[in-house]
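Hi,

I'm pasting everything inline rather than attaching a file, because the server keeps stripping attachments. The sequence lines come first, and each chain or strand is labelled.
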Amino acid sequence: MSQKVLLNSKEVNIALHRLACQLIENHDDFSDTVLIGIQPRGRFLADRLAQVLSKDYKIKNVQLGHLDITFFRDDFRRGQKPLEANTTIIDFIVEDKNVVFIDDVLYTGRSIRSALTAIQSFGRPKNVELLTLIDRRFSRHLPIQPNYRGRQVDAIDNQRVKVNWVENEGEDAVYLIDK
Amino acid sequence: MSELSVNHLLGIKYLNKQDINLIFETADQFKEVINRPIKKVPSLRDITIANLFFENSTRTKLSFELAEKRLSADVINFSAAQSSVKKGETLIDTVNNILAMKVDLVVMRHPNPGAGVFLSKHVKASIINAGDGAHEHPTQALLDSYSIREKLGTVKGKNVVIVGDILHSRVALSNIYALKLQGANVMVCGPKTLLPKYIKELGVKVETNLKKALEWCDVANMLRVQNERMDISYFPSTREYTQQFGINKALLDSLSKEIIIMHPGPINRGVEITSDVADSKQAIILDQVENGVAVRMAVIYLLASKIKQ
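And the predicted assembly:
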């Protein structure tokens, strides 16, 4: 199993700041915007972005939630592994808000499809955008594209993109791993 | 990894500790789902569930049906009173006929102990036991433990007393198994005539004085006297039963600590529990009902995930 570094800690940090600035450009003071980290891995990126927005760019009251999509997935009973549910925390109103979905890697687009259905249980957002740290090109199963991306990569199906976070794995880095 | 060790939920006896933890962790997520503005998830769109009730039920039947519908399963209902069972059809024939309609999962309540186990050996479908005679009622025990866990943080090490008609109660047996599995201390309390002879062999304490039992416990689970299962008299009168084993506000207030009161329903107000206790802050009877839907969603979801496509 060989692995290649796509982004190191410094590059992850630069990407985070760039994404934060792009969000500010479109969402101003975030009064009508909510950030939703897609469980399980998108929440680390969402937490980190919210932190950058409030600490480095002095955005007050960034509303941040975590959305679990397990029960909305389209592969229930179809995979080898059982699907494991995670926590959903959305303690604000989504109705009529600008929702930004945040996930670490955009691959087939199926998770985002599930998230689009899941978010409707919390109301009707004004619009929904997608932010992703890594966008895997040419691998989409559905017509879904990100509005904000950290880095676009070309990876083939038997490769895996792994995003590590200081909070979880002890380092900020993105790897391309041959399975 | 997160999968149940069983393909059916026939009784708590067949589960292990990891199974219970998995059910509770999944139920936590479903509890959040049923408190959303839209309380439904599409997971079980391609699953059909038959609810077979050969015995009367209000709460359990509604709770199961709601859990199934919240998971988007297709549901068919059957109750023995309006069926061909009256015409002499056997259990296996009845169920196989229903399964011929392409049903994936069966929820069954039956007056005979072991009906679920019997069925699981003869038909091709996942079975959930929703109560079999005086044997087991696993989902009730799971939701009871889940409610204790929610209220006290953990079940392990807690003192739980089950009060009342232990002899005829499937809730009692399932609760004893579930609580012991999670490391709780269990006591049963009731008139000697309503305590099974070998109950101590399940590793529970036995007490016939209610006041002493309540002083000992953190949680009291009050059971109903099941008159419909009694062919002889087990105690002199209801009035005397209430005096000895009924819980009232004065008794509750006389205890040295605040305990939690549970009841699986249906309540006979004024018999095993007075209204002021049933409606007090210490009673978590309605929390149990709410948790019942979440726990049943978890059980159905986890069993359905093991059904091959």
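The mean pLDDT of chain B is 92.

If the labels don't parse on your end, tell me and I'll reformat.
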